[in-house]
TrEMBL record:
Name assigned to this protein: Alcohol dehydrogenase, iron-containing
Classification via Gene3D superfamilies: 3.40.50.1970, Dehydroquinate synthase-like - alpha domain
Xref: InterPro entries: ADH_Fe/GldA (IPR001670), ADH_Fe_C (IPR056798), Alcohol_dehydrogenase_Fe (IPR039697)
Pfam families: ADH_Fe_C, Fe-ADH
Entry keyword set: Oxidoreductase
MF annotations from Gene Ontology: alcohol dehydrogenase (NAD+) activity; metal ion binding
Every Alcohol dehydrogenase iron-type/glycerol dehydrogenase GldA domain range: 6-168
CDD domains: PPD-like (cd08181)
Domain Fe-containing alcohol dehydrogenase-like C-terminal: 179-300
Length: 359
């Protein structure tokens, strides 16, 4: 069994002790964020700390969802490479972008080179401050970027965040839609990790705890968006699911979902979670029974959350997507032997049988 978790995590610290950590990390900080960090108060709290500590900082607040290569290049052009620390503040996109930028700051390599582990050994330090509960990026060595309209993750131990600051209060202003889609991303991480052929007793501990929390509390939270203790539980579960995938990676549902996000603009967590029932049923794994014992029928769970996607799709597109999934690294770690035919079957099941599409 193997696991490696080098990130220092402060959960609900309210910057009491994490300030000392920030102070030690360096003198210059580049903040990568989106627009929501102004609304939820997280950006102001962070910049107040930098002001107090007399640290140099700049802010890029135009992070796009599913961070495209061109945006990363633009940030480097605009802000240069001379930064001690890159801060990813927001959802998965700013955190994943921050990880890529941290590597590029210390290496003269292209974005494509990020996918070749041997091309780099160093990175600027990374702080992650999630303001959604879903990605788990705050405790993982992964970053998912979009290159030529294809979502693809790179991994490297060097991009584990040095420090992650988790404050559930930042998630209180999330809309119902974002709460559901990010919560389902975390659920997907947990379920996929539990099923993964790379799972072990350590990752299972976190995966199953996350499944338990999310299946109980996400439906409650959807009807009570400002409940702090539910927000807190979801942030904890999302982090647990992140720990689980730091060991196992994700499996087939993530790979199947990527095309729905890039080609049909479906939110990542939704695009992924709709394939979980198929993945569970086709795993032939005893873990599937354990997951059902905790959360019951996952298809019913998704239907109770009123998940229903709708867009035009052709057989040619499904064929193209299946070809990409077949060649993805997820296939090897997913139980159930996914041939191209079986991958097409998974898409057809979703479009024609699941009841999650076209209604
Ligand atoms: Fe994900």
């Amino acid at each position: 069994m193997r696991f490696f978790l080098p990130t220092k995590v402060f959960f609900e610290d309210n910057y009491n002790e994490s300030v000392d950590e920030i102070k030690k990390l360096g003198e210059s900080f580049l903040i990568i964020t989106g627009k929501s960090s102004k609304k939820n108060g997280s950006l102001e709290e962070l910049t107040n700390i930098f002001e107090k500590l007399n640290k140099k900082y700049e802010i890029f607040d135009e992070t796009l969802e599913n961070p495209p290569k061109e945006m990363i290049e633009e940030i480097i052009r605009k802000f240069g490479k001379n930064w001690d620390v890159i801060v990813g503040l927001g959802g998965g996109s700013p955190m994943d972008a921050a990880k890529a930028i941290a590597v590029l700051c210390k290496n003269d390599i292209s974005i494509e080179d990020l996918y070749v582990q041997s091309k780099y050994k160093t990175a600027s330090k990374i702080i992650c401050i999630p303001t959604t509960s879903g990605t788990g990026s705050e405790v993982t060595q992964y970053s998912v970027l979009t290159i030529n309209n294809v979502k693809k993750g790179f991994k490297h131990e060097i991009v584990f965040p040095t420090l992650s600051i988790l404050e559930p209060k930042y998630t209180l202003t999330m809309s119902k839609e974002l709460t559901i889609s990010t919560g389902l991303d975390a659920l997907s991480h947990a379920v996929e990790s539990a099923l993964s052929l790379k799972s072990n007793s350590f990752s299972d501990l976190y995966a199953f705890k996350a499944i338990e929390i999310i299946s109980q509390d996400l439906p409650k939270l959807v009807n009570n968006l400002s409940d702090y203790s539910l927000r807190r539980n979801l942030m904890l579960a999302s982090m647990y699911a992140g720990v689980a995938i730091s060991v196992t990676g994700t499996t087939i549902a993530h790979s199947l979902g990527y095309s729905l996000t890039t080609d049909k603009n479906i939110k990542h967590g939704l695009a992924t979670a709709v394939f979980l029932p198929f993945e569970i049923e086709n795993s032939g794994s005893k873990k599937a029974e354990e997951i059902k014992a905790i959360m019951g029928n996952i298809l019913n769970f998704l239907k109770k959350l009123e998940i229903n996607l709708n867009f035009e799709v052709s057989d040619d597109e499904i064929e193209k997507w299946a070809e990409r999934v077949k060649n993805s690294s997820h296939v090897k770690v997913t139980p159930g032997n996914y041939t191209k035919e079986k991958i097409i079957k998974a898409y057809k099941w979703f479009f024609e049988e699941s009841g999650l599409f076209g209604g």
